[in-house]
Amino acid sequence: MKASIRKIATFVEETRNEMGRTIAPPTRRAAAVAVIENPYAGKYVEDLSELMLIGEELGELLTLRAVAALGIPPTSVESYGKAAAVGENGEIEHAAAILHPKLGAPVRKVLGGGAALIPSSKKRGGLGVVLDIPLGHKDAAFVRSHFDSMEVRVNDAPRGNEIMVAVAVTDSGRPLARVGGLAKHQIKGEDGLR
Amino acid sequence: MPEVQVRKKFTAVEEIFHEGGPVSCVPLRRAAALAVIRNPFAGAYVKEISGFMDDLKPLGLEMARALVVALGGDAKVVEGYGKGAIVGAAGELEHGALWHVPGGYAMREILGDAKAIVASTKKVGSPGTRLDVPITHINASYVRSHFDAMEVGLADAPRSDEILLALVMTTGPRVHARVGGLKASEIKGEDGLR
Prior knowledge:
The complex is a heterodimer.
Chain A lengths: L4 E14 L2 E17 L11 H22 L8 E8 L5 H8 L4 H8 L8 E5 L6 E7 L10 E5 L9 E9 L24
Parallel strand pairs in A: 3-4
Antiparallel strand pairs in A: 1-2, 2-7, 3-5, 3-7, 5-6
Helix pairs in contact in A: 1-2, 1-3
Chain B lengths: L5 E11 L11 E11 L13 H19 L9 E8 L5 H5 L2 H11 L8 E6 L6 E7 L10 E5 L9 E9 L24
Parallel strand pairs in B: 3-4
Antiparallel strand pairs in B: 1-2, 2-7, 3-5, 3-7, 5-6
């Protein structure tokens, strides 16, 4: 284990009714968040490769946790997203090092695919900072019904020398999606976009 | 009394390995189950509301069972509990008090013969309001190592005509508990207090 993990939080949200309309089956999404020590807190370090390896490790761990929390086969996941919040003694580039170089491959390995870009967000913030994890369809980024986001926060994180890393997965799009665009049954699946 | 209408459900699990001290060999886990329901009494003063407590009993049991599942499925691992409610702006605090009986007795039933009163808190609030749900030992309220709290809340709830209901369970003492007082090993188990 490369990451020094202080805590892991998982969240599951199930929407059964919206504006008086029953959502059947309910839309469900889950996020797993790890709170880790930032090995580069408080100093400028040129080579961020340790955080890249931590990203690889957390990509697998958090995806497994989120899928387990949803209680579905990994291949049934429809959309995904990732995000990180760096404590006050770190840089935004630390979030980038975790999220972008190596985190995606193990996510796709767990899910058995995922041609689309994994949408992401990042910020620096204090304890209890809110992360809005963007969500997009895992096979075709243009599927409009699956453009969404999931808010997560952990009240005691990130401390100054910590980083919060999050992966979110869903079994569905928005509860009452009706703004047109590419639908999931129209996915060609050639380029990760459409 | 009116039917219980659930808009969404939410589950959160925290697994805490350390908080700057020695890594615990058994991580502390805290879980929260939230349900957002329509407040049937929103917008007017209704004198007779107590019958709604009976209507909430099945939901209480469903949430208590979901918490045990979120903690691995064995009720024996549960050592602490608490409950709370956030009433949307068109309701009154007394509507939150409707949760005391169905929420508390549901957990005591699912956990076997839990003896201690279920610690609780409630408030009137808006979407995004956070609630610090107090936690105490399930068999003896004075066990100092198990005094704890879990922050819960949802970005989009409660709307003004809704109530957010919460139940919380934990699997042990605070991760670095060391301020003395009655220990779990010293519980007499006669009165729910010591």
